[in-house]
Design a protein that fits this description.
The protein is mostly helical. It is built from 13 helices and four strands. It has helices spanning 2-5, 8-31, 70-105, 111-118, 126-138, 149-163, 165-180, 183-190, 195-231, 257-264, 273-301, 314-321, 327-337; strands at 40-43, 46-50, 239-240, 251-252. The longest helix has 37 residues, at 195-231. It is elongated.
């Protein structure tokens, strides 16, 4: 594990995510989630701009149509977005892991029937399925929410986690089945090892690196689904809706990034910095997760997860500098060996 923390790609991704989370919690603790409002901008007593104000010194991400500082909204919503994605991914792997091990050891003969059933899930749009399941929970009715924000977040995390659990079970089951057929496992079985011991001593250690990769992939997939739900006006923690003759557009309660996208996507042409800022934050977070996956795989296996060619480590470079063994070297070795 020490090699992982010395891997620069892993460190870059980890420090980015950790830095954003720490900044988000610190900002909320210090300012009590206060958002600066700049509706008009004056310079030398003259009015130079009005909301929405484009990015400039002092307002690095500009303001929205109401004059609210987008940078503050991004910082406040970062902890909800990132922690929700991490929670969904962790819950998916935690639920699927024991079932996958059982599928790859105890129920290997029934695995093909389960895989045939799970294949249909690859063609079901998860965003549409999540929309119909979460709309009654997240969309505010006319009489107001009957649940707390914490309850709505937990329900959304649990539903998003369950959507892809069967697919992960199938993936872990297939990998476990392949390891179960390896020579060292066959030898352990011939010596009397039970399936439970094989899972603990052989299958789980062999899958440890792949489980981290699966976890990272699930984090990125969750961020993508959250952004899609934001475009469909379903925001993490609930969508605040007003009613009447001239209702306001739906808004996010928690300022999480998918809500900022859905709330501001109509400004893509007139004020593009408003929706593009949370979109770029999603992209930067997914890039950080991808860097962590790449760095972890390089540190633990010496190979690249995204590149096909092998990584030229320092040891391999030294080996490449050594000369090739010739026929004369072999003859000399034979003479000196007797």
């Amino acid at each position: 594990m020490r090699k992982v923390w010395k891997q620069p790609l892993f460190l870059i991704g980890f420090l980015f995510i950790a830095g954003v989370l720490i900044t988000s919690f610190a900002y909320s603790w210090i300012t009590d989630n206060e958002i600066k409002k700049v509706y008009y901008l004056y310079e030398d007593g003259r009015l130079v701009d009005g909301a929405p104000i484009e990015p400039r010194p002092g307002l690095p991400f500009g303001t929205d149509a109401l004059g609210l500082d987008i940078f503050a909204k991004i910082i406040i919503g970062a902890k909800f977005t990132i922690l929700a994605a991490l929670a969904v991914a962790a819950l998916r792997v935690f639920i699927a892991l024991p079932f996958g091990f059982l599928m790859g050891t105890y129920f290997r003969k029934q695995k093909k029937y389960f895989n045939g059933l799970i294949d249909s899930f690859h063609y079901v749009p998860l965003t549409i399925l999540a929309y119909y399941l979460l709309r009654p929970v997240l969309m505010e009715p006319m009489e107001g929410f009957q649940t707390s924000m914490t309850e709505r977040v937990l329900i959304e995390v649990f539903i998003l986690a369950l959507l892809t659990v069967p697919i992960i079970i199938s993936l872990i089951g297939n990998e476990s089945s392949l390891i179960y057929q390896r020579d060292f496992v066959v030898c352990a079985k011939s010596l009397g090892a039970s399936n439970w011991r094989i899972i603990r001593k052989h299958i789980y250690p062999s899958l440890r690196e792949k489980l981290f990769v699966i976890f990272g992939q699930q984090v990125m997939q969750t961020l993508i689904i959250l952004s899609h739900l934001g475009l469909l006006k379903l925001f993490l923690g609930g969508t605040h809706v007003t009613f009447g003759m001239m209702p306001d557009p739906p808004t996010s309660i928690t300022q999480e990034w998918s809500g900022l996208i859905g709330d501001s996507f109509r400004y893509l042409q007139s004020a593009p910095w408003i929706p593009l800022t949370p979109i770029l934050c999603f992209a930067a977070t997914m890039l950080a997760v991808a860097l962590m996956i790449e760095g972890y795989v390089r540190a633990t296996t010496g190979r690249s997860h995204y590149l096909k060619k092998p990584i030229r480590t320092k040891a391999r470079k030294e080996m490449s500098k050594t000369k090739h063994v010739t026929k004369e070297d072999l003859e000399w070795f034979k003479q000196t060996s007797y």
